[in-house]
Design brief:
Blueprint lengths: L3 E5 L5 H10 L3 E5 L3 H9 L3 E2 L3 H5 L4 E4 L4 H11 L8 E4 L5 H13 L3 E4 L2 E2 L1 H7 L2 E6 L2 H14 E8 L3 H29 L4 H8 L7 H4 L23 H17 L5 H17 L7 H13 L1
Parallel strand pairs: 1-2, 1-4, 2-3, 4-5, 5-6, 8-9
Antiparallel strand pairs: 7-8
Helix pairs in contact: 1-6, 4-5, 8-11, 8-12, 8-13, 11-12
């Protein structure tokens, strides 16, 4: 078990993750440019550094949870020289596969080790320590990181080499975005045909249309009390993040010559929805479909 963990990025996901590492007995040295995030990390028991470079200087493992690939690469360029030789960098951000591979190359060129380890499970999973980690990188580096990732997650999967963890995340969220749109269209159609939400749920949750989006994250109030639909669509997993992930998936579809028409359409629909509902949970797209369906019939 590593004794010192550097943690860069203390937002809605990174903050609870850092706190869980502290509770597990790790010494966490953290940094975030936002004063409120630093204050919360300090209250959670982490040591707060003045700069990102200072946060990694004594660390054996560095975790990053950052908003996009450009920021990840900028942070790596800023801190790699400050880290001790052989430091293991574990990036938990969701970024493009090419950016993940470039980040790993930068780390290795600087004498370090690197994993891409994006997560699924949202803010609630980060707080509860039940995230799913999809990890790309060398097997021995995965083994070294596994004990601390198991503190943060309920499932940790080594998916392959550098960038393959990001590939798994992009593919997963491509499926999730498509399924949430399909489920929402079916729910709105059911409404038009006189099918109540509870009856819809009772049938479909045990029929061939069953999916995680329905049984764990139902986009209408009632059937799943813990879903954001019961809390005015507070995220959860915000529309802005789903839009980002589907944008990454759309780029990957195009770059790799995949005839992914549903994926491209899902990216387009969420991009449109994001213009007015970026701060809502992504499951709120059912309200957009309902509104547009009403408009079409007027």
């Amino acid at each position: 078990m590593a004794t010192v963990i550097g943690f860069l990025g203390l937002g809605h996901m990174g903050g609870p993750m850092a706190a869980n590492l502290v509770r597990a007995g790790y010494e966490v040295v953290a940094f975030d440019p936002a004063p409120a995030a630093r204050d919360q990390a300090r209250a959670d028991g982490a040591t707060v550094a003045d700069t990102a470079a200072a946060a990694v200087a004594q660390a054996e493992v560095v975790l990053t949870m950052l908003p996009n690939g450009r920021v990840v690469l900028d942070v790596y360029r800023d801190v790699l020289a400050a880290a001790a030789p052989g430091t293991l960098f574990v990036d938990c951000s969701t970024i493009d596969v090419a950016d993940a591979r470039q980040a790993a190359e930068l780390a290795v060129a600087a004498g370090h080790r690197a994993l891409d380890a994006p997560v699924s499970g949202g803010v609630s999973g980060a707080a509860a320590g039940t995230l799913t980690f999809m990890v790309g990188g060398a097997a021995d580096d995965f083994a070294a990181a596994l004990p601390l990732l198991e503190v943060l997650g309920g499932k940790v999967v080594h998916c392959g080499g550098a960038g393959v963890g990001q590939a798994a995340k992009i593919c997963n969220n491509l499926m999730l975005g498509i399924s949430m749109i399909g489920l929402s269209e079916a729910l709105v159609l059911g409404e038009k045909l006189g099918l109540r939400h509870d009856e819809f749920f009772d049938v479909v949750s045990t029929a061939s249309g069953q999916c995680w989006a329905l049984t764990s994250y139902c986009p209408v109030p009632g059937p799943v009390p813990t879903s954001p639909a019961n809390h005015d669509y507070r995220p959860g997993f915000a529309t802005v993040l789903m839009t980002k992930d589907l944008g990454l998936a759309a780029n990957a579809l195009r770059d790799n010559g995949v005839d992914g028409r549903l994926g491209l359409l899902a990216a387009e629909l969420y991009d449109r929805f994001n213009r007015t509902a970026a701060d809502k949970d992504f499951s709120a797209i059912v309200t957009d479909i309902r509104t547009r369906s009403g408009e079409e019939q007027e």
